[in-house]
Prior knowledge:
Blueprint: E1 5-10, H1 20-37, E2 41-44, H2 58-68, E3 73-80, H3 86-99, E4 104-109, H4 114-119, H5 127-142, E5 147-150, E6 155-159, E7 173-177, H6 182-190, E8 193-196, H7 202-206, H8 208-221, E9 231-235, E10 237-239, H9 243-249, H10 254-263, H11 275-285, E11 289-291, H12 293-307, E12 312-316, H13 323-336, H14 338-341, H15 346-357, H16 359-386
Parallel strand pairs: 1-2, 1-12, 2-3, 3-4, 4-7, 7-8, 8-9, 9-12, 10-11
Antiparallel strand pairs: 5-6
Amino acid sequence: MSGLRFGTFIAPFHPVDENPGRALERDMELVQWLDQLGYDEAWIGEHHSGGYEIIASPEIFIAAAAERTRHIRLGTGVVSLSYHHPLMVADRIMQLDWMTRGRVMFGMGPGALPSDAFMMGIPVSEQRERMDEAIGVIAPLLKGETVSHESDWFTLSEARLQMPAFTQPHVEMCVASQVSPSGARAAGKHGLGLLSIGATTTGGFNALAMNWEICEGRAADFDQQVHRDQWRLVGPMHVAETREQAIEDVRFGLEKWLYYFREIAALPLAPGGDFESAVDAITSSGLAVIGDPDDAAAQLERLEQQSGGFGAFLMMDHNWAPFAEKKRSYELFARYVIPRFQSLNDKREDSMKWAASNRPTFMGAVGSAIQAEIQKHAADLQKRGEGDPS
């Protein structure tokens, strides 16, 4: 995994007891911090209900973040395709491709919250089918093609985008997947990347290898190609100097996150019980890391072994710890975990070992050089003494 990329997946998750505007500002500050730390990617979600996940338009957030960052790539994580007309989605992404100078990535999904679909009168049973149908026209549009398509929920008549792609040959596209095979099937069918949002849940972890097999199989069926370096796995972490400190940090907000998944979001992520038992359940099951850099590295190795290899790991962002400790977690991960998986210190270690193994030789050379200078200086003194008229 020497070429592994790293980033964050910001849903976000903000409890309802705080100022929402300040919460959004902290999300933006976090992306700026990750840009400074050298992270590769930040993905921004779309949600419309439930109170916690308060970014309604990842495109608006990305446009603002692009002005405040220099290097980090910014992805929609994800646009819920069943909620939008496909031409409008493609046109917004193309605009962002230019505004970000090629730093935008386009993540697509059916819509994660049934409550969102309910408000719009969209049957949950149709969301995945609508996603696949929308991808079938959005991908050609972003590749510069003209598309006509008649559907029971949208129509395209000789539709085309006004601008060419800034990113050549086109914007990178990914399809979200949790446990069901729908995301992997769609990614394979259209030759797109795969974004495994629930990679560390029990069901998602167990399905990793199978989902990639499905993706590759569907790609072969439709004469497409998929690549593991475009496969991203997502999972939550909080890292501190010690495991004990990490647990103490997350006393701040872990239970509020658990409450959201126990009582509001229709996703079975949160274990029951008190704080201590929840921490034990989360860490022992592999759902999350609450520990030190070695624990984080072990989780990545576990995912690599289970999946057979992937291209990027995204930390599912959360507010388990106070903001300063949260930023510290990302910093510790960047300092002590990322270098292990990007081979950043291989040459430094080689140089250190070479210098250590040859130290006797070097010390001998230094000693000889010092002795030679001492002798030279003594000779100069003697010479000056012989020539002194006094």
